[in-house]
Amino acid sequence: xxxxxxxxxxxxxxxxxxxxxxxxxxxxxxxxxxxxxxxxxxxxxxxxxxxxxxxxxxxxxxxxxxxxxxxxxxxxxxxxxxxxxxxxxxxxxxxxxxxxxxxxxxxxxxxxxxxxxxxxxxxxxxxxxxxxxxxxxxxxxxxxxxxxxxxxxxxxxxxxxxxxxxxxxxxxxxxxxxxxxxxxxxxxxxxxxxxxxxxxxxxxxxxxxxxxxxxxxxxxxxxxxxxxxxxxxxxxxxxxxxxxxxxxxxxxxxxxxxxxxxxxxxxxxxxxxxxx
Amino acid sequence: xxxxxxxxxxxxxxxxxxxxxxxxxxxxxxxxxxxxxxxxxxxxxxxxxxxxxxxxxxxxxxxxxxxxxxxxxxxxxxxxxxxxxxxxxxxxxxxxxxxxxxxxxxxxxxxxxxxxxxxxxxxxxxxxxxxxxxxxxxxxxxxxxxxxxxxxxxxxxxxxxxxxxxxxxxxxxxxxxxxxxxxxxxxxxxxxxxxxxxxxxxxxxxxxxxxxxxxxxxxxxxxxxxxxxxxxxxxxxxxxxxxxxxxxxxxxxxxxxxxxxxxxxxxxxxxxxxxxxxxxxxxxxxxxxxxxxxxxxxxxxxxxxxxxxxxxxxxxxxxxxxxxxxxxxxxxxxxx
Amino acid sequence: xxxxxxxxxxxxxxxxxxxxxxxxxxxxxxxxxxxxxxxxxxxxxxxxxxxxxxxxxxxxxxxxxxxxxxxxxxxxxxxxxxxxxxxxxxxxxxxxxxxxxxxxxxxxxxxxxxxxxxxxxxxxxxxxxxxxxxxxxxxxxxxxxxxxxxxxxxxxxxxxxxxxxxxxxxxxxxxxxxxxxxxxxxxxxxxxxxxxxxxxxxxxxxxxxxxxxxxxxxxxxxxxxxxxxxxxxxxxxxxxx
Lengths: 276, 336, 241
What we know:
The complex is a heterotrimer.
Chain A: H1 2-28, H2 39-55, H3 61-65, H4 68-77, H5 82-100, H6 103-106, E1 110-114, E2 117-120, H7 121-158, H8 163-193, H9 205-228, H10 245-264, H11 267-274
Antiparallel strand pairs in A: 1-2
Chain B: H1 10-34, H2 39-54, E1 58-59, E2 66-67, H3 71-79, H4 81-98, H5 107-130, H6 137-166, H7 173-205, H8 213-218, H9 222-252, H10 256-265, H11 270-286, H12 299-302, H13 306-335
Antiparallel strand pairs in B: 1-2
Helix pairs in contact in B: 1-4, 1-5, 1-9, 2-3, 2-4, 3-4, 3-5, 4-5, 5-6, 5-9, 6-7, 6-9
Chain C: E1 2-10, E2 16-25, E3 30-34, H1 41-48, E4 56-61, E5 64-65, H2 71-76, E6 78-81, H3 85-88, H4 94-104, H5 109-122, H6 138-150, E7 156-160, H7 168-180, E8 184-188, H8 192-198, E9 201-206, E10 209-215, H9 216-220, H10 223-228, H11 235-238
Parallel strand pairs in C: 3-8, 3-9, 6-7, 7-8
Antiparallel strand pairs in C: 1-2, 1-4, 4-5, 9-10
Helix pairs in contact in C: 4-5, 4-6, 5-6
């Protein structure tokens, strides 16, 4: 089933890019998989970025456009393929356009004339909305590609989120791929014996998912036992951070200032005005 | 159903984060009180299960389309509402990070729209109500379908409210709601049936796994009063949130609904619009992060011009060049 | 190391799965636990690890009575390798998973790192330490799950069907590694060839009772005994293999 396959592929992808990250990290510091900046730094900057992007006025297209600089610098700097990130954005783009599609029809007043072509406020506000969608998804994507889910869990933990919650997020991530593959095998086995059917027939809805669920529960039991036998006491102690704290703080401060600057000062307009 | 980041204004995102955070705090407290370390791996694996099961297509008889399972109800029916809520949070977080379904900023909204209604209203109120006098096949089906429909209706309505409060669309609120609710009624029915099918299967195979099954087996009445209190609290919280959202909508767009209506009818008087602009401007000044509407004669809109685009491409070009230059030098350094 | 006397166990007060077992295992011994499906091998191993439930009779592990209050202390000295590696490895990378146990017992930084690397060296997986677990082959996963136990430096290792679903090469590799591990081992398996190669002593279970307890040499050559209990002579002894 394409959806299942795509999900599995997506997880593989995030992991491949991280491996590149690790490969470089290894030379610098001891063993294990670490990155030089604290994941919390990435998390905070991403969150701040999202806030700023969303806070742009719906007609401020050029101001919003300047926020692309963050994505470009991060993407190129960390050697993450931006085209792949763009591919990631299209479902959101679809959703956002569905919400914004009414704008051009409602707001027909012309904003600026380009020869014969007039651009209305509605079109600008729709474009702004779509751009916001793209930027937000890409920023989240860059975050995951940069730190990985384990990194994000470490970041959440250092934000003092409840340990139970972080443990659950962690386990979901770990068992996601296992269960996706199991579901894929089940669907394949079903399809091989039920050719020509598009999905799972309603008569077997219950037993199909129910069996998968029971098996998952049994697995949870074994996982719990295996955790107990290795001294689990309510907290999964994941990766330790061994990078530089000072650099992480500097990273956050620098980006906060730069992003705020981009938000407040219409850089693109100013540079454009300087040109003859 | 998943709100995207672009659709929420910072103030809305913040409000919903606070609401979901409160529900989260309550759930964590409850889960810790229950002190079942065994539940943590079950929550993790079940979260992954809900995820995987949502990727499987189930054919709806008579139509060519397909549906999937309703996570909140499903998880609560197995884990109980509090643990189910935490698990749903995990699912939504992983979903927004790995699959771009929803977003980090909109996470608060999504947790509320999907997890809160599903786990607390769907399971804590409806499921409990249905199972008050013991569990049967029919009751499970009834509770699942009713729960899913209710959850999705409330969720869809909240999505419409949050979008309105964020002021991203010109779509009149009425039209938006009229489009959202019937679609989600159909989805709710299908999701309810799938969820019911799974729960009935579990009921027949291993009933002890279902939430509350030990209650009706042991015939405990003590729980009833506790849940009554919980129910009232939940309803109160919901009322506050909905009220808060409505007032938020009103404050960020002083003449919200009528304004868009008038625009369609093209009968808006210039003077009135001018006043609206002033009012909006004032609100904006006081709360900088509220969505501002960049009214027509504001500088930001008219500034979007050729010079802006020209300047923009220049800056982007320089930036990309600088990045590649830096990378090139860093690469050489490493080789040496 | 392990001493059980008159141990009887039943799931949920139903028909007993283990009847009146008595067994003593000395330090450094490698014991093979054989028997047909449902003979009670896994149940016995789980009981010894304290995850089975309540039992009747006496059981001592590492000099401590097997009961609730000693469980934490016992588990610190005992390693259990599950049949399904996927359940055993619940973190994302090999390194993280192998470090899970040591970290829980309070080792951090250098010490944890040293223990992890030692364990990985013992199973020859140093090169795969940053590998994502779902990207590993079945054989690698099995070795990784053994490493997760070794990193805790256990005194006793319990292995449930370690060779199941391994190809001949990986199986041979596993046997080498098991022979290099000097700790006390109890290996439950149907793979009699592996038992032949790794264990000096064998215990044959049938229907929850110990049918025979003796040297591997003696038991695995006894065609009649094995066939009576749903097993066959190891291939290497039949002359066919």
